[in-house]
Each structure stands twice: as structure tokens, then as C-alpha cells.
Amino acid sequence: MRILGLDPGSRVCGYGVVDEAAGELRYVECGILTAPEAQPMEQRLGEIARGLREVITELGPEVVAIEDVFVQQNPRSALALAQARGMALAVVGLLGLRVASYPPATVKKAVSGSGRAEKAQIARMVQALIGLKSLPRADATDALAVAITHSRHVRPTSVRLVPAVVRARAT
Q: What is the mean pLDDT of the chain?
């Protein structure tokens, strides 16, 4: 299954694509979609939406995983993030893809084992889990973390551990 993870934003939208087969993850691509900060919100979101449509068309994911909006202290920031998330959901919906949504703590726990992990720890775990030689930009790393989270919810870790335990006992 090809999974597109998204970390939406009104100026930068991170994306990360992984393939999951038989419990194994393979890195495909990641990056960011940007829009100039000086543009009005509707133009920034339109530009990011066009880029997201191109990414989906080119990479052909079967499902999209997106991080939930988390409560922020600044209501304006929370609103901008919600608008960006809505734009991403609209693009995905127009292309007929399924969407899975995960709270930030669930993403952190799925990738690092702790729902309170720091960004640096999450980034190192993403790097290790999919074999990246260097870390991409934080927004792309966050998107990859969301994609990895979806792969673990579709195929729980315990299912993947059983063959490894059987192999270890056989040796």
C-alpha cells in the first residue's frame, strides 16, 4: 500500500510517501510545498493545493494520512492550520482518496514509543525506520511520521513482530 503523509500548513505543507508491504516500509519520496508569505491566504492555499494535486497525481498513493489540528495557544495560528488542513482534505476528496487522521500524540507514540517525544527524537526515529541517510526538512519529516503511523495502524506492530520472533527461535 502506498501511503501519503501530510503535515499541512498555510505557508508550508510537508508531504512524505512510503510503501508498506508485508509489514516492511520503503521510502518513496518526501518534500515540501510552499507559497510566498506575502500572498493573501486564499492564494497561498490555492498554490499549495495545486502542488498537492500534482504530488498525488504523480505518486499515486492509495490512502492519505494527515495529522489532526492540535490546540494552540494562539487562536489565529490554530485557525490558519485548520484552513490549510481543510484545503488538503478538499484536494484529497476531489481525487477520491481515503483519509486517515491522527492526533499528534498518536503520531509521536507510533514512531517513537512515547506520546511526549520531542521533534528531534521523532526525526531520528523516522530516519532510522525508513533508512534515510540525512534528515529532510522538519515539515517533510513530520509528514513521513504521519505516513509511518498509518502503516502501523493498518498493520499493528505485534503482527510484524511475530515472524521476527519465529525466525529468532529457529536460529
A: 89
Q: Domain range spanning residue 11? A: 2-170
58 carries an active-site annotation: no
Among 7, 42, 68, 142, the one annotated catalytic:
7
Q: Which of 67, 68, 118, 142 is catalytic?
A: 67
The catalytic position among 68, 118, 139, 142 is: 139
Q: How far is CA 163 from the centre of its chain?
A: 27
With a cut of 90, say whether residue 165 has pLDDT above it.
Answer: no
Task: Return d(Cα 38, Cα 2) in angstroms, integer.
Answer: 35
Active site annotation includes 7: yes
| 96-112 burial: b if 16+ Cβ within 10 Å, else e | eeeebbbebebbbbbbb
- Burial (CB < 10 A; 0-12, 13-18, 19+), residue 46, is middle
Chain mean position to CA 64? 8
User: In the 8-state DSSP scheme, what is residue 60?
Assistant: -
Q: Look up the CATH number of the domain holding residue 41.
A: 3.30.420.10
- The model's pTM: 0.87
Strands 2-7 and 63-67: parallel
Question: Is 68 noted as a catalytic residue in this protein?
Answer: no
How many independent structural domains does the chain possess?
1
